[in-house]
Amino acid sequence: MTAARRQPSKIIAKVLLYFVLVLIALVCLVPFVWMISASLKLNKDVFAFPIQWIPENPRFLNYKEIWEQIPLGRFIFNTTKITVIVTFLQLLTSSFAAYAFAKLRFKGRNALFLCYICTIAVPWQSYMVPQFIMMRNTFHLNDTHLAIICLQAFSAFGVFLMRQFYMDVPDELCEAARIDGMNEYQIWAEIMLPLSKPALATLTIFTFVSTWNDFLGPLIYLTTTEKKTIQIGLRMFISQYSSEYGLIFAASVVVLIPVLVVFLLLQKYFVQGIATSGLKG
Amino acid sequence: MTAAAVPAKKVSVKKRKILNNLTAYSFIAPNFIGFAIFTLVPIVMAVGLSFMDWNGSGVQRPKFIGLANYARLFRDKQFIEAFFNTIIYTAATVPCTMILALLLAVVLNQKIFARNFFRTAAFFPYVASLVAVAAVWNALFSPTLGPVNQVLMALGVKNPPGWAVDAHWAMVTLILFSIWKNVGYYMVMYLAGLQSINPELYEAASLDGANTVQRFFKITIPQLRNTTFLVMIMVMIQCFKVYDIVLMITNGGPGTKTQVLVFYIYNVAFNNWELGYASAISMALFVLVLVVTLIMFRREKARSN
Q: B90, B118, B129, B249: which to substitute to probe chain A, counting the most A Cβ within 10 Å?
């Protein structure tokens, strides 16, 4: 290992690097900082220029008022309910199906899996209309949470991700279990499932984030205010109170927190998940 | 313990095979049934609906009208405008996102202090709720009140851009927002690709006298071919499907200047209730995605041969 050479060019390069880094962090984070700062101001102060980053009299009252102006609590409850159910169903059915695709040999395996793959390229927006008609006319599920749950819980992506992971588990493990007399369901529950914690964590984050942030689905299906989710609720709030900037940003901050928490907790798996799905593409 | 099993009941090979198949199907069933009902069936219906005229109500029966919807596409000025808006948006967003994501990944792959913090910062816009982020963005870029223009004017710019409400700047605003929001995701993909490059390649190149720039273009870029291809396809498909961003930042405006395909589909379907025509537009979108994807795959295959 060479001794560190204090060449001027190396120092300049390092300084430049950190300058760029700080710039990147600023560009990415300043909007959020501004948002928090604005959420603590009176409406008239939000756009005061030069920007007062730390308000003189932080108006925490904003955070109290938002709960009264729109049923924010209701929206959060709705979104949480849908997200938790969808995530649970996705994890369960995807890992269940992926085990068969990865480790079992059966008739029609390739054809069925091909079905899954083909639909990944089809934009949901291309069939969202007949899907809505079917939901409304046949199942009478328009304006229900069940509709959103059904749409999101059975994705091809989940099966794809879990299958990739299961394929890396050595077949010998399953073989040994079979010889020991375990049936396939036991193998799935006692061997595959515990081993696949990283993949499950990744799928959890993906599903959580995409369901929590889902906008177009709830927009099409949920018409009663009481049933709306937080994204549409927030949007409704913004259109209704378009000049109450303090309130708007307080509500926005509240909306951002759950995803931030989940993200920070499971960050490692999120990054891993994107990485592995890319490499094995 | 002997390995030879002495089965009490002899199960024939055929029976075993059927049992295996049934077991496998039982694993797939929960997911596949839901998938078939809520995804496969609507896809087939979408194709069928595009040949019909229907307003979706239980009262009016769908009427078969052959290719009339498709013929209408060619005459529909709004469709053509939406089509080209989508292409322009994609053509600008894809290369910018890819280049920025790669540069970010390269920078954030270096050994630096608080590297995780910087990576998290770059990634956070992607997970943040679009509605919240769009609200902030619109406030920041408000032509009259927003800090961005205030700063520009303070720096001496006489007529700062009208951003989302200006006919010339609306698309630019959309593209900028889109890149800012999504670049973190693709940065992570590039990071993974970078980390899988064999460091010996760089060492050998250094010994041969290559400088940083040469190493980047002669080693990094070629080694990242697969990742680059995947990123390109994903950004492209994401751009063709865009809706939420357009709705929140410009609402298709001013007028229909930034109306994209999915935006138009939504309006035709859920505002005009012309479901047959909306399905035809949806098919056009699908064909666009399919054709471009196939072309890309073909080019990539040719290049790697």
A: B129
